[in-house]
Amino acid sequence: MIIFNKPQIMFGPLQKNISLPLRKRYVTNTIVFSLLVFQADSQVLTLKDAVSTAIENYGTIKAKSDYVKASQVLVKESSDQHLPEFSLGLQNVYGTANGVFGPAYPGKVLGASSSGPFFLEQNWNSAFGALYLANVNWDVFTFGKVRESVKVAKAQVMRETQNLEQEKFQHEIRVAGAYLNLLAAQRLRISQQKNLDRANEIRSVVVARTKNGLIAGVDSSLANAEVSNAKIALTNALDVEKEQASRLAQLMGVPNREFNLDTLFLNRLPASLFDSTAQASEHPVLKYFQSRIDVSRQQEISFDRLKFPVVSLFGVIQSRGTGFGESYSALNPKDYNHDYWSGIKPARSNYVVGVGIFWNLVNPIKVAHQVAAQQFTSQGLKNEYEVVSQQLQSQQILADEKIKHALSNYQEAPVQIKAASDAYLQKTVMYTNGLANIVDITQALYTLNRAETDREIANNNVWQALLYKAAASGDFTLFVNEFQ
Question: Which structural domains are found in the chain, ordered by start?
């Protein structure tokens, strides 16, 4: 399934209790904020720096990089299957050498390979013995078993590589979304701070007029309530900002800290909002799902090769030593010794070379079931691919709609700001001259704060919409190239 989601700004509690400043205070705050925005120092964290740091530090990406390396080593291991087996053996033993007539079958049982003459009764004559063995076994023709095994291993490398790439892509989307969310939280916190400043100014005016007996004392109580409400809204904004900063720090793999983000790009519209996107099949997530299908289909072929025989060359050379003499028998049972060195010295040697074909005739029946099961697995993976493909197509259509709606709100936000600012200035002047009541000015305060919040969200959501389009199309450069 696709695990990336559209990054959204969820600041519902902050969209209330918003007010308009006195013009002098508003201009002062704007100048201070602009100076903070345009400071060019090394502490500013750009979006590209955040993404590159996250790709380098994030644990999941490191883990999947190691999985790729592990799969690459397994390709070499699969390729080495064509090499012959070469075994060396050496045994030094001490025991008896009694012989007996009778059948035996070495099927899944262990037994001592002692050999010797036949006696009328059991004896416990013991001596040292030794076995020296060299064995070569080479499957020279496997009917494609090794070749298909290597292909499966290479397909697994591709799968792990695509898994790494889609994880990088999705993490880039997550980090960019977290960056935009934190930037929005910081802007909204600034809006709430300005709202608190305006509420304090209104309270100062109200208190002064109340002391002079120009207005009723209840106005100061309402003004105090507005200040308290603005403080709560600012605290909530700070809480959201801390949460978003923590989220960004986690995704970047760095300690939680204050982030000074780049804000210059918010003053313009993205140039690539309506650029064409890459083909759907090139989406990193779809390529990963396709690689899973490729591995499964390659395993079908590899399993099918198991029904064929194996042609092997083999050779054995063997030497044995024993402490029993050549005349040791029922007639001469004392021809043995307990000397270690005479027992382990090679006395007889043999060799065997040959070629053989080995074929379990029941394998085709067993393999048929394995192949059938793997075919069902391939079909299931294909169905998952289709589901993801449909989701991405739907998200691409939705992305275009979100861009249209975000642009509409972006264009409407200045109109709301202008109207709310004018209304607040008007109500402030009227209240100062006794032509409006406290309810009028607090309503104007709320309207202006709401307009400022809507503007910040509208500006941010245009970039969020572009990010959503990049996520749906599988082309992160569509978004990140805006920050060059």
Answer: 12-78+148-300+366-483 (1.20.1600.10)
For residue range 136-188, list pLDDT tens digits in order: 999 999 899 999 999 999 999 999 999 999 999 999 999 999 999 999 999 99
Provide the H-helix boundaries in 19-93: 23-37, 47-57, 59-79
The number of helix segments (H) and strand segments (E) in the chain equals 10, 6
DSSP 8-class letter at 345: S
- Cα–Cα distance, 310 to 305 (Å, whole number): 10
441 neighbors 428 (Cβ within 8 angstroms)? yes
CB contact set of 225 (below 8 Å; sequence gap of 6+) = none
Instruction: Report the SS3 class of residue 11.
Output: coil
Q: For the stretch 91-123, what's the b/e string if a residue is b when 16 or more beta carbons lie within 10 angstroms of its beta carbon? A: eebeeebbeeeeeeeeeeeeeeeeebeeeeeee
For residue 306, give Cα distances in angstroms to 167, 295, 375, 421, 461.
35, 17, 16, 79, 57
Q: Which amino acid is at 146?
A: V
Grouping H, G, I as helix, E, B as strand and the rest as coil, residue 91 is strand
| DSSP H or E segment with residue 435 | none
Helix (H) or strand (E) holding 41: none
User: Rounded distance, CA 143 to CA 151, Å?
Assistant: 14
CA-CA distance, 337 to 97, in Å (whole number)? 13
Give phi and psi for 134, each to the nearest 5: -130, 130
**Which run of H or E residues covers position 10?**
none
- Please name the residue that has the structure tokens 């210059």: 264
pLDDT at 291: 97
CB atoms within 10 A of CB 59: 8
pLDDT, residue 2, reads: 44
* 143-146-147 Cα angle (round to 5): 85
User: What single-letter DSSP state applies at residue 409?
Assistant: H
Across 307-320, average pLDDT: 94
Task: Supply the DSSP string of 325-342, one letter for each residue.
Answer: -TT-SSS-TT-B---HHH
State the burial class of residue 259 (Cβ atoms within 10 Å of its Cβ: 0-12, 13-18, 19+). Answer: buried
| 3-state DSSP assignment of residue 201 | helix
Q: Is the pLDDT of residue 326 over 50?
A: yes
pLDDT confidence of residue 9: 40
3-state secondary structure (DSSP) of residue 320:
strand
Q: Is residue 12 predicted with pLDDT exceeding 60?
A: no
Structure tokens at 258: 């204050």
Q: What is the SS3 assignment for 119?
A: coil
Predicted pLDDT of residue 37: 40
Identify the three-state secondary structure at position 228: helix
Angle (CA) 395 398 404, round 5°: 145
**7 pLDDT higher than 90:** no
CB within 8 Å of 240: residues ≥ 6 apart:
11, 14, 185, 188, 189
Residue 324 bridge partners (DSSP)? 336
